[in-house]
Amino acid sequence: MSDGTFRRRLLALTGAAALAAGALLTAGAPAQAANTYCAEPVQPGAARLGAGQTLTAGQSVNVAGETLVMQQDGNLVLRLTAPGNPSGPPLWHSNTWGNDGAYATMQADGNFVVYRQNGTALWSSGTYGHPGSCLDVSPRGDVQVTAPDLNYAPWRLDSGYCYCNPDPYGPKDRWYAQGVLRRANWMESNTVWLVIPPSGDLTLYRKRDNAVLWHSNTPNPDGAMSTAILQEDGNLVLWEVPPVGSPRHVGHTATWGNPGAYAHLQDDGNFVLYRQDGVPLWSTGTYGQV
Description:
Elements: E1 7-12, E2 47-49, E3 54-55, E4 60-63, E5 66-70, E6 76-80, E7 90-93, E8 103-106, E9 112-115, E10 121-124, E11 134-137, E12 143-146, E13 155-157, E14 160-161, E15 174-175, E16 180-182, E17 185-188, E18 192-195, E19 203-206, E20 212-215, E21 225-230, E22 236-241, E23 248-252, E24 262-265, E25 271-274, E26 280-283
Parallel strand pairs: 14-17
Antiparallel strand pairs: 1-23, 2-11, 3-8, 4-5, 5-6, 6-7, 8-9, 9-10, 11-12, 12-13, 15-24, 16-21, 17-18, 18-19, 19-20, 21-22, 22-23, 24-25, 25-26
């Protein structure tokens, strides 16, 4: 069985569609009543925030193992949470630190904006022109702006549980062929998270203290997006998608030739890629570190 080395490559991926980089939106603390469209969550367990609702420094919204927090330093950050750990690893941030007292608000014109304390805009979702829009945070952990005049979300951060298991009600610690884990996605066991954080490095975190147990050593430059795919041939491959240019193959487990292979994020802290018959092919070598 291979050890946890994630082999690096820089090969152009031709003919592949570029993956759109996500942005995060959200607002939070109760404020004035939202409009009728935003009056009820779109699904049970979701949070829906409407015009005039604001997150000030230190306030947060918590849904489905995530917290969206307006930090004291002015950065709006989406983090994972776990019992006993309310501030887990980051999934996304607005890159607006260094602005103490900044706040985020869902505006009446449909735009979600982070402002300096003096009212200067620092970051926005770019969704103005859709009055009556809301911010939805789903039980799965996805965050998006929804608009009453559109049949699609004008802004969406494809955060939340990864699309690693074709059964949405199946175990969240299994990864099957053609399953995809993108930046701001995660899978989890009872003890660890496997995440692609803002750095783009596929990273294994211990839940109790956010300790990094393993990472792929494939960080991305600013603006690039990472995505990991378990291919049908059994190889787990990490791609880098820059804002301009072709996607690049930057790392893999070298486990091709094993159709039907699957991965298991185990409670002992190890992430293991197994052959279809249960024989281990590759692992992070992190068993017993929880």
